[in-house]
Amino acid sequence: MREKSSVLVIGGGIAGIQASLDLADRGLEVYLVEKTPSIGGRMAQLDKTFPTMDCSICILAPKMIECFRHPNIKLLTYSEVEEVSGSAGNFTVKVLRNPRFVDESKCTGCGTCMQKCPIKVPNEFEMGLGMRRAIYLPFPQAVPRVATIDKDNCLYFQKGVCKICEKFCQANAVDFDKKPEELTINVSAIIIATGFNLFNPSIIGEYGYKQYKNVITSLELERLVNASGPTGGKLLRPSDGKEPNEIAFIQCVGSRSQRKKCFPYCSSVCCMYATKESIILKEHKPEVEVYIFYIELRVFGKGFQEFVTRAREEWDVEYIRGRPDEIIEDPKTRDLIVRYEDTLDRKVKELKVGLVVLCPALIPNDSNTKLEKILGAELDEHGFFKSKDPLFAPVDTNVPGIFICGYSQGPKDIPESVAQSSGAAARAAEVIALVASEEN
Amino acid sequence: MTFEPRIVGFLCNWCSYAGADLAGVSRISYPTNIRIIRLMCSGRVEPVIVLETLAQGADGVLVMGCHIGDCHYISGNLYAERKINVLKKLLARTSLEVGRLRLEWVSASEGGRFAELVKDFVEQIKALGPSPLAGDKPDKNILAGVLAAKAAAEDFRLRLLVGREKTMIDDGNVYGEKVSEEELDKILNEVIDTEFVRNRIYLLVKEKPLSVKELSERLDLDSKTVLRHVVVMRRRGLITVDRVEGTSPLYTALEVGR
Amino acid sequence: MESMEEETPRIGVFVCHCGINIGGVVNVPEVVEYAKKLPCVVYAEENLYTCSSEGISKIKEGIAKYNLNRVIVASCTPRTHEPLFRGACEEAGVNKYLFEMANIRDQCSWAHMHEPEGATEKAKDLVRMAVAKSRLLKPLEEPEIDVTPSALVIGGGISGMTAALCLSNQGFKVHIVEKEPELGGMLGHLYKLYPTMQDASESLNHVVNSVKSNKSIEVLTSTVVKQVKGFIGNFEVTVQKANDETANFEAGTIIVATGAPIFEPVGMYGYGEYDNVITQLRLEQLLKDGQLKKPESVVMIQCVGAREKEGRTYCSRICCMTAIKNALLIKDLHPDTDVYILFRELQTYGKHYEEHYRTAQDKGVKFVKYLQEKSPRVVSGKNGELTVNVYHALLNEELKIGSDLVVLSTPLIQHEDARELSQILKVPLGPDGFFFEVHVKLRPIDFATDGIYVCGTAHSPKDTPESVSQAFGVASRAAIPMALKRLRTEAITAVVHENLCSGCGTCVKLCPYGAIEKDEKGVARVTEVVCKGCGVCAATCPERAIEMRHFTSEQVMAQALAALGRTSA
Fold first, then answer.
1. A227 contacts on C by Cβ (under 8 Å)
2. Which of C155, C426, C452, C518 could form a disulfide bond with C257, CB atoms 3.0-4.6 angstroms apart?
């Protein structure tokens, strides 16, 4: 018999964090595998959360650190699940630990290397709006606070010269010879919490994303209004670094759509986060005009309708019913003209704004396809993991002992993800209890 | 220089402190004058501490708790309300403005309300001007009054009454007789009057021996009332006759475990 | 409990920049220099993020290097970050109650963004106040308690039963208390369930049978919870049966899964007046019993008594999908019946709900958008035939729809007796009347009171998959203390100075938790594990014989004096 029963959690966003903490808090051992250098996931990128306007990283960071400090949680960041065999109660899992080229046990996260590194590349965490170095921490509250060398952009790896980071590292933590490591672990149950990706709005050609500088996505906006984001919390539009006076949000970009490469479902959170972002914009600059183009307002959660009412009545956010047909850029000012039919008065209208924020479909994580093959847990037609029984076994997959939670199971907001992740943890604990009773 | 009041806030952890946090999180600005002390519950607000804070020169004291019905500890804010009520009655008998003390309810979601209330209270205090007890030379007479109020707030009899107020209204006394709010208020006023005056007498004669005549002048009370209090206080062993000048006895305070 | 040895305080102060959140407004280096000069402060430094793993190791290094026995972090709010920093202190060998925080972000830099000087002065004052308290802090220990490994589940609907089964599979005993004579809750009244169109009673029977045949689940029907005493791990529950008989048992944790009934729209749209104006729930019953006579034209009206300007302002989440599902069921039975759904905003969110909406459109269900300010009107003709007049907001025209069945979609609402239960359990209800969780985002199924949890529609309207997900969720939350078997409880409790206590009994009466009683000597005694640390007793005690640990009068007074720039004697 094993000393302690273990659970593998795949994905270190809020769903994976909650599942891990629930299991670890009750004395079970957890391996938390995260593909990127830090846990935190999408929630770490958000400025605030609706409808309470809590500062996202402020409420998330303590949980991230709790994971890091928890004696029952083994954090495996920058790692991927490669192979799984066995069955419920006894899975053997091979985890690939990608080399950071920095020794996790030596690095203090002091950041000197990141100041000295000569290479600047767009920072993925900042949605490419801010820069990072080739040796980097994705964001200040990253957990673990260990630097990572991005091989593809490192001068030494690409041209064989530099090694400045190694020279300046007081802790001698840089190790260019680090090789990928393979770790084999034995677990009783597996929880999938891979979260979501963003739909690429370039597919909707008529909105001009990546073509017009002042058409951005909502997640880019989250970083632009965030105090520790690339603009220090000032909303400066990309074309000229000026504050726009009129901003339009467009809902359902790539979602609720039958178009090719688009997704038929509703992403569940966009109406609310657009409302939240509108209020944030108004807080930053009360005289700014904010418009939200929507088809149906999705206000179904606790306190949501009240939140929208407040945005409308107290903050003067204007909701316009209609899916814009196209966006045209004024080549001189780089302002944008949104052409749309207002479906409430059936008139075709135009609206000139300084910035357009697209709310793209939130889509299944692209790791899901690979995980489906490795785990045998089936995906649905969209690419989310399929519930064994959508009604009565929502967190079970077709494979006993493998559970799902959060956005990997389907669109949902943070509290739903958190509650469901606790649910997946309970199901995993059931497997362990069953194994224990059989062993006795 | 313009007058910038020093305000001490006593806030409960669950609602009003969270509301104050929310004001910050929401970047709602309010004047910098307030210094917040976090307590677990507004019911923890000890009248003696409030009076001492005022005696030490705070320009204002703002107590905040959860809205009635929302108390994390069920009924703590109800007790806070009773205590602030008594504190205001005590302050009304001193020459320090009652307006320097305020009780408000703020929920965890009312960042805006918190900021508004702070703004409003700062304005209220600015209108009153600096506390006569602030700075190096506090007004002696006013201070004497506040210290007497504080002594009254420390007194067993008044505290017992305040502590039992709620149960007397809700459950009645030992005989199961319920007391109405009005009756209780009347009793409370009498006890506060008595305790306040006796404590002023005590503090005055503690400084130097005084006669009933002198006391009645200092306290602006008729000598008959003063004499009545002096008789009770003598009987309780709080004061004693120091010496007799002419025909008037001069009283002095006894150091007692009050 | 307090340590007897008095050490000279050696305080370390860590001032956080919080990136630019604090440092962008407050002059952090100036605050650090100021802190260094305060009494008993032997070390002070600034951190970019004190809460980062780097910051945490800085605290630990500081404790070791400067032999600190008190730590102050000047950063954000103790409400979120105190546990983290306390943990760091503990790991470095400093009792966690010797930690103190100065909130210079939420209550300073963020609130005074445009007054950097004022904010800096305030930050200094807040640090000075923290130092004043820190000097007087005493180490505290958290009492340990045993946890009864059984749960009380209040409500025997699908949420309660799911939670009960999951807990029992994890090895815990469960009592389900259901006020109705049968298990099943709302699902017992439904016909088919979306999104799979499974038969509700078939699925429900399966679950009910699993519960009934489960040896570790005790089911008490026609029973209500009358009284709950005690605390996490040790709740003493009194229940009352329909015959007024009472029973008592112990529970380690409590799950509120009381569900939610629908709103009865009496007086709205002719409900209660015309027989053929019914609720969705009634329609469901008719479909289930096969009693629905073929209607010619069905009009469903959404948001009846929901999303109102005042009162029930909330969206009930499930009504749009329920209407679509029932419209599809009617269409399946009677393809040539006209079905209209009069909606305000259609809530077909999530993975597969849009598809149902599309199917309904394909099958000819007509969707009519109406505006709140132009609500539909139901009028009755001479022969009892109904007409629904509605302004179609998308076609900009007034429609007159003849109808022989009007179905009102009404919201789920809180039970009438929820207020009483909330008082018995001492947990709150929110402004919408539903049970109110401790943190909307990250603790959605926990109450502020330890050991009590909420799931399903008692928390807010939701459908079966969402209720079941939450039910599994509470089965994890409640399992944590029960799996641990022993728990550490509140250290911040009241303590009676026996020699000062006159035995007047004032505190015994006012303690909201019944944590104080008179002992054999006639003096007050606090049951520490029951005390929640509110401090009402300490503030009220006529003899001032009760002290609140960690918020002693001396400590609070020291903070107040420091706030005024005066020093305590």
1. 19-21, 24
2. C155
Beta strands in C155-270 (DSSP E): 173-177, 192-193, 198-199, 217-220, 223-231, 234-241, 246-251, 253-256
Which residue of chain B is at minimal alpha-carbon distance from C531?
A: B73
Q: Which among C103, C119, C512 is the nearest to B74, CB-wise?
A: C512
Residue A174 lies in a domain: no
Same domain as A327, residue A245: yes
Q: Give backbone dihedrals phi and psi of C555, rounded to 5 degrees, phi first.
A: -65, -45
Interface contact B25-A283, CB threshold 8 A: no
Please list every residue in chain A whose beta carbon sits closer than 8 Å to the beta carbon of residue B109. 52
| Residue A350 within a domain | yes
β-partners of residue C279 are C408
Phi, psi at residue B229, to the nearest 5°? Answer: -65, -40
Residue A54 touches partner B, C-beta closer than 8 Å: yes
Is the minimum CB–CB distance between B30 and chain C shorter than 8 Å?
yes
Q: Do C539 and B43 touch (CB under 8 A)?
A: yes
**Sheet strands (E) in C99-180:** 99-103, 144-146, 150-154, 173-177
Distance from CA of C359 to the nearest CA of B (A): 41
Task: List the Cα angle A335/A339/A344 in 5-degree steps.
Answer: 130
Q: Tell me the pTM.
A: 0.80
Domain of B54 in residue numbering reads as 7-128
Q: Is B103 on the interface with C (CB under 8 A)?
A: no
Q: How many residues does chain B have?
A: 258
Chains in contact with A via at least 3 Cβ–Cβ pairs below 8 Å: B, C
Please give the residue of chain B at the shortest CA–CA distance from A53: B26
Is residue B111 located within the same domain as residue B168?
no
Whether A186 and A158 map to the same domain: the answer is: no
Are A309 and A384 in a shared domain? no
In one letter, which amino acid is A57?
I
Residues A12 and A131 in one domain: no
Q: Output the domain CATH number for residue B34.
A: 3.40.50.960
Helices A414-439, C464-477: axis angle to 10 degrees equals: 60
B244 and B161 within one domain: yes
Shared domain for B11 and B121, answered yes or no, is yes
Tell the residue number behind the tokens 């009933």, with chain if given: B212
Domains of chain A: total: 3
Subunits with 3+ Cβ pairs within 8 Å of C are A, B
Q: Which of B38, B82, B133, B174 has the most C C-beta neighbours within 10 Å, making it the best mutation to test the interface with C?
A: B38
B29 at the A interface (CB within 8 A)? no
Of C236, C259, C218, C245, nearest to C424 by C-alpha is C236
Spatial strand order in the sheet of C234-241: C223-231, C234-241, C246-251
| Structural domain that includes position A158 | 112-168
Helices (H), ranges, A327-366? none
Q: Residue B154 and residue C107: Cβ atoms within 8 Å?
A: no
Contact between chains at C479 and A426 (C-beta distance less than 8 A): yes
Distance from CA of B69 to the nearest CA of C (A): 9
Chain C residues within an 8 Å CB radius of B43: 534-536, 539-540
User: What is the rounded end-to-end Cα distance, in angstroms, of chain C?
Assistant: 26
| Cα–Cα distance measured from residue C174 to residue C520, given in angstroms and rounded to the nearest whole number | 37
Q: Are A15 and A365 in contact (CB under 8 A)?
A: no
> What is the distance between the terminal CA atoms of chain A, rounded to a whole angstrom?
10
Which has the closest alpha carbon to B65: B52, B51, B81?
B81
In this complex, the chains that touch B, judged by 3 or more CB pairs closer than 8 A, are: A, C
pLDDT, averaged per 10 consecutive residues of chain C (569 residues), comes to 66 91 93 97 93 88 97 91 92 96 95 95 98 97 94 98 98 98 97 96 97 98 94 94 94 98 97 96 96 96 96 96 98 97 96 94 97 95 91 95 97 96 88 90 89 97 98 98 92 94 92 86 90 94 96 97 80
